[in-house]
Amino acid sequence: MTRRSLCLLVAGAVLLAACGGGREALGPPVAAVGPRSVYVAIGSDEELGEGSANALQSSWPQVFFRRTLPGNTVFVNAAAHDATVEAALDVQLPIARQQRPTIVSVVLGAQEELAGDPRPQFTDQLTKLLRSLRAIDKTRVLVGSAVALPSLAPDVRTARKAAYDAAIAKAAAATGAEVVPLGDITATGDQQVGTNGRPDPAFPIDDHESEAVAAAFSKAFGKRSTPTSAR
């Protein structure tokens, strides 16, 4: 067989394979090509799965990412142990800027809430963080409301949560971030005394509660974004 005949035979086989009526293509389906989606989680222990049986699979950002976001989404967990808003500005914000996310979740404030009532710098720092995240091109920011800390006395817990709710709402309103209500979610995960003498983690959520946080963010994600201020 000549080289020319072989080439024609191969070309004919390829054409028949492409036009074979009704035959299914082998291999997995090819995903539709579209713009890449990037999700960055900013937060503290609850984002890392502290209190979950399987942190890699059961942390709430993983559940939110896996069940809600598009299949072409890249997930980057920038959370850090015992993170405060100030620490997130120094360490986590640069990671987010580098990744240029399309969506960011923020759950912070438990460390400050454990220490006392919100100080003016908490609102200022959170506003700066949210505004900086919103300034990244096309970034949608979902920020969790305050959480009820299990180690505080009931009356203190309620009053302090309300104070931090107000501070978070103020920062969100000033930046166009969207508040995700977490008020009904309680923490019942394992809590120990940390090296600093404080309960560790401050907000220990187990697998069931991780599901609840993820569901709250999924619900908020499904709503059309209507920011109240420009980036």
Would you give an account of this structure?
The chain has a single domain (35-222), classed as Rossmann fold (3-Layer(aba) Sandwich). It is built from 8 helices and 7 strands, in the order αβααβαβααβαβββα. With 231 residues, it is an alpha/beta fold. The longest helix is centred in the C-terminal third of the chain and has 22 residues, at 154-175. Helices cover 45% and strands 13% of the residues. The chain has helices at residues 3-19, 55-58, 60-68, 85-99, 110-115, 120-134, 154-175, 207-222, and strands spanning 37-43, 73-77, 103-107, 140-144, 178-180, 192-193, 199-200.
**Structural Rg:** 23 Å
DSSP, total strands: 7
Outline the biggest β-sheet: 5 strands, parallel
Structural class: alpha/beta
CATH fold-level label: Rossmann fold
Please give the CATH class: Alpha Beta
Overall domain count: 1
- Helical percentage: 40-55%
Give the name of the CATH superfamily: SGNH hydrolase
Could you tell me the mean pLDDT?
83
Looking at the structure, what is the overall shape? globular
Task: Give a concise summary.
Helix content is 45%, strand content 13%. It has 231 residues and is α/β, with parallel strands linked by helices. It is globular and about 50 Å long.
